[in-house]
Amino acid sequence: MKLIFSSFLLCVLCVSVVHSQTINREAVVKRHNVKVHKIDSLASLTVGNGNFAFTVDATGMQSFPEAYAKGVPLGTQSAWGWHSFPNTENLNVKDALKTYDLEGRKISYTVQVKEPELGRKTVDYFRVNPHRLQLGNIGLEIKRKDGSLATANDIQQIKQELHVWTGIITSQFTVEGVPVKVTTAAHQQYDAVSFRIESPLLNSNRIAIRMRFPYPNGQFKDVGDNFKSDDRHRSTLTTSKGAALVQRTLDTTNYYVDVNWTSSASIKKTGAHYFVLQPTAKDAFECSFIFSEKKPVTTLTNFFKTKQSSELTWKKFWMSGGAVDFSATKDTRAFELERRVVLSQYLTKVNCASAYPPQETGLTYNSWFGKPHLEMHWWHAVHFAQWGRPELMEKSLDWYFNVAEKAKLIAQRQGFEGVRWQKMTDHNGDEAPSSVGAFLIWQQPHFIYMAEMLYRHNPNSKTLNKYKDLLFATADFMASFPSYNAATKKYNLGKGLIPAQECFDAVSTFNPTYELSYWSWALEVAQQWRIRAGLPREKKWDEIIHNLAPLPQINGVYLAAGNTPDCYEKGSKYLTDHPAVLGAYSTIPAANGLDTVVMKKTYFTVLEKWDWNETWGWDYPLMAMTAARLHMGEEAVNTLLMPVRTNTYLINGHNYQDDRLTIYLPGNGGVLNAVALMCTGADADKGINIGFPKAWNVKWEGLKKMF
Questions:
Q1: DSSP 510
Q2: Among its keywords, does the record have Signal (predicted)?
Q3: What are the chain's domains?
Q4: pLDDT tens-digit map of 411-430
Q5: 54, 56, 10: which is closest to 190 by C-alpha?
């Protein structure tokens, strides 16, 4: 207990010392305003508040969704917006269960069974449903001189800027030589977006605002451009002076869009789900669109209020928590790293700061049908606490209380104790069938990790009492999951799992290095929570901690798993996907007997042999954190900025993966995790800036140490 308190005190002292290096935060943020000068499908910009996001094209609205559909699409999504197609055949997810005989235990998993036909239909339905909704498309309709509608090619002389300090987008362009300016802002307390349109074209009624409502496409990726299926949903318009209300009905899902404007205009329905707001104002026009689950009693905002909300709230955000300034570093790579840091803070605040774990594409468009993946929750949320904003992580961590009963039922069904946290899930905590996801286990310790992060921020009985019971239930599953090997007298993880590196067979895989380390570390943290609560150490947990299988290695290099002695051989399939073996000394300190000399050799083995074309965006921050813990600053920067497609960061700050995943927020979260660790060091480190080359002069303040 004394050692833990000393580490916490050291963390506080380190942060306090560096805090004296006052940073001009506004200057740091503003030098990374995003500027766009052309129609670019990968350069769309987003405003939002964590619970709601609205993504725009070069006009500052969603005028040309078809031009962006294959890039970063023009989405409108909220944390509450979900829909399911009718379950007309009364399918039950139990028909996706398959029982496996694993280490003498019969365990059922919710997987993608292909037969019988009932099972296949069940899988198809529950992977698609529920899915997150694209709530609507709001764009400009601009008439050319001849009366025809302007196209994307008519948008010329583009000068668009995302003002990151205020969260406001200004978009200037011309149509046939006539200037147009649009100011776009999202309210920070309501799910609302507001616009101010300025143009001489208003004088001749050549600018209108169009609302279109899509129907879900039911596919892996939904970019909000399915304007067919008119008969499958309803859009009803009610008007009043200076305002209108659209009620949306999709099967059993209902929501509302409240529209208001501040000067002369008319609104009419021109199609089943198509509405046109026609200003008759001169020179300038302001309007707002508020999305809500329930019918609004009164109009909540207008352009002035929305703009003010954005300016004040974003300034408060940037002045809170941590900041890093790379401007004193001469290395040209420093500016790019600072850009990624600033824009990643913006994007994760917009997309990942609600009361629910986010999907990997946030509130922009659906990937995996809009479902969150709990193994990615660490990458979406932990950086908030590292950057001194723990309340943003706490919001989504508290969701686990809502779904704990379902996690308990999963554990009971499989014959384990405690709660087994879901993988591919939804807001209600239901499992989606997945032949990979059902076997993942590395999401299990995340709850313990995040609760411990909150305790470090607020080491008091209130934090302890709030989370301890659920944390203990998490540890109970972890202690009941390993299987005892009588020959080695050790407990194995598996067989019957897929590690974070997902290219493994579930039935034959056991003892992955990262999971062994994470298991050991998290169980020990759980024991410390028992001690803090005045309870004795749990004997069963200690039995696992003291007798967990050692980390598998050959020739002084850690293996990906105990069943893959050939994992580094040329052409091996185990040289693809996440280099998760390095996670054993990346997000966590040394545990389960980890040897840093062996890990260093493992790091360089991975660096030499890996197929970098088959990786993901968070792999590079993972490696950078390992390099930082090994005090290899040059290596940490090199890996964090490695020139690989999946480590690309677009002009808008998004981490690009491929045509299917044009944005990938775990990469953004990972950058913030890595840079914070590179600045503060871990608990075991005595110095600061341990993750940068010695020549780098990096100033920082307000960051919190990683374990």
A1: B
A2: yes
A3: 38-85+135-319 (2.70.98.50), 335-701 (1.50.10.10)
A4: 999 999 999 999 999 999 99
A5: 54
Rg of the chain over all Cα atoms, to the nearest angstrom: 26
Helix, strand, coil % over all residues of the chain, rounded to 5: 35, 20, 40
> Cβ distance 410 to 474 under 8 Å?
no
Whether the CB-CB separation of 356 and 77 falls below 8 Å is answered with no
CA angle 547, 551, 557 (to 5 degrees): 160
701: its two tokens: 């303040």
- Picking from 441, 545, 538, 527, the residue whose alpha carbon sits closest to that of residue 490 is 545
Residue with tokens 């036909």: 117
| Residue whose structure tokens are 């707001």 | 277
DSSP state, residue 145: T
Beta bridge mates, 424: 373
Task: For residue 94, give the H/E element and its range.
Answer: none
Give CA–CA dist 196/185, Å, rounded.
Answer: 9
DSSP notation for 173-202:
EEETTEEEEEEEEE-SSSSEEEEEEE-GGG
Beta strands in 82-167 (DSSP E): 82-83, 97-102, 105-110, 131-132, 137-142, 156-163
Query: From the DSSP assignment, how many helices (H) and strands (E) are in the chain?
Result: 17, 28
Give yes or no for a contact between 256 and 295, defined as CB atoms under 8 angstroms apart.
yes
Q: 595-646 pLDDT, tens per residue?
A: 999 999 999 999 999 999 999 999 999 999 999 999 999 999 999 999 999 9
- Backbone torsions φ then ψ of 151, nearest 5 degrees: -105, 175
With H, G, I as helix, E, B as strand and everything else as coil, classify residue 250: strand
Instruction: Return the ∠ at Cα 395 (arms to 391 and 397), rounded to 5°.
Output: 110
* pLDDT at position 21: 53
Determine the distance from the C-alpha atom of residue 278 to the mean position of all C-alpha atoms in its chain, rounded to a whole number: 37
Cα 348 to Cα 49, 292, 340, 365, 393: the distances in Å are 10, 22, 12, 15, 11
Give, rounded to a whole angstrom, the gap between the first and last alpha carbons of the chain: 15
Cα angle: 401, vertex 406, 408; to 5 degrees: 85
Cα(216)–Cα(115) distance, integer angstroms: 27
What is the token pair recorded at 305? 């209020």
Question: Which residues pair with residue 498 across a beta bridge?
Answer: 440
- Half-sphere exposure of residue 354, counting CA atoms within 13 Å on the CB side? 24
Give the residue among 54, 438, 434, 439 at the shortest CA–CA distance from 220.
434
Tell me 150's DSSP state.
P
